[in-house]
Amino acid sequence: DAGVTQSPTHLIKTRGQHVTLRCSPISGHKSVSWYQQVLGQGPQFIFQYYEKEERGRGNFPDRFSARQFPNYSSELNVNALLLGDSALYLCASSRQDTPNSPLHFGNGTRLTVT
Amino acid sequence: AQKVTQAQTEISVVEKEDVTLDCVYETRDTTYYLFWYKQPPSGELVFLIRRNSFDEQNEISGRYSWNFQKSTSSFNFTITASQVVDSAVYFCALSGQETSGSRLTFGEGTQLTVNP
């Protein structure tokens, strides 16, 4: 079975632009989460969706938004990009939305804002 | 609030040495779960192990072992006879009812370098 797939792998944007990152979960996984990992730090939780409903939101500004589609794939949108948004954006999926569900991560999208 | 601390930012060892990565956590939950993930240079976080708060048995999987001690809120990870392929960043993470669902709180990570 394919793992979590993310696209694109790399992206370069200019300050003020908008970006959309995409994620396809492992087949059968209904929960998708997004994490931001700044260089040299641990991943920080952004959003979690389960069965197309938002189940959690981290401490990120309203410029960040996400959604989950009927096929459980997901998009993360970031508006009005800032230099500080440069990071590795990781998508993770799990079968259930429970604390004991291991998350399976994709390879991430490396976003550079100039 | 939940918190995970990995005090060791970087560790460098020579191949075949044993190495222990420390993890200390804070949570108000009575039921919680602890995880270790490995992040090689490719960027993907690879799940290694999950422990629940009511099971303090240590676990061994090949060269990997984990020591969970509730009394000291620690969940340390030991690699025996390290190999160059073990070089990666290792993250300890925590989930529980405090944050709900499968949301993880990660530590800052420990960069392990195993030299030949």
- Binned, the helix content of chain B reads under 10%
Number of strands of chain B: 12
What gross morphology of chain B would you assign?
globular
Average pLDDT confidence of chain A is 94
Give the count of helical stretches of chain A. 0
| Count of alpha and pi helical runs of chain B | 0
Q: Give unreliable regions of chain B as ranges.
A: none
Uncertain runs of chain A: none
What's the arrangement of secondary structure elements?
The complex is a heterodimer of chains A (114) and B (116).
Chain A: E1 5-7, E2 10-13, E3 19-24, E4 31-37, E5 44-50, E6 53-57, E7 64-68, E8 74-78, E9 87-94, E10 104-105, E11 109-113
Parallel strand pairs in A: 2-11
Antiparallel strand pairs in A: 1-3, 3-8, 4-5, 4-9, 5-6, 7-8, 9-10, 9-11
Chain B: E1 3-5, E2 10-14, E3 19-21, E4 24-26, E5 32-39, E6 46-52, E7 59-61, E8 64-69, E9 74-79, E10 88-96, E11 105-106, E12 110-115
Parallel strand pairs in B: 2-12
Antiparallel strand pairs in B: 1-4, 3-9, 5-6, 5-10, 7-8, 8-9, 10-11, 10-12
Quick summary of this structure?
Chain A has 114 residues and is mostly beta strands.
Description:
The complex is a heterodimer of chains A (114) and B (116). Chain A has 114 residues and is mainly β. In chain A, 0% of the residues lie in helices and 50% in strands. Chain A has strands at 5-7, 10-13, 19-24, 31-37, 44-50, 53-57, 64-68, 74-78, 87-94, 104-105, 109-113. In chain A, the strands form 2 sheets. In chain A, strands 2, 4, 5, 6, 9, 10 and 11 form a 7-stranded mixed sheet that branches. A 4-stranded antiparallel sheet of chain A has the order 1-3-8-7, with no helix packed on it. In chain A, β4 and β5 (44-50) form a beta hairpin. With 116 residues, chain B is mostly beta strands. In chain B, strands 2, 5, 6, 10, 11 and 12 form a 6-stranded mixed sheet that branches. A 4-stranded antiparallel sheet of chain B has the order 3-9-8-7, with no helix packed on it. A two-stranded antiparallel ribbon of chain B has the order 1-4. The radius of gyration of chain B is 14 Å and the shape is globular. At the A-B interface, β4, β5, β9 and β10 of A face β5, β6, β10 and β11 of B.
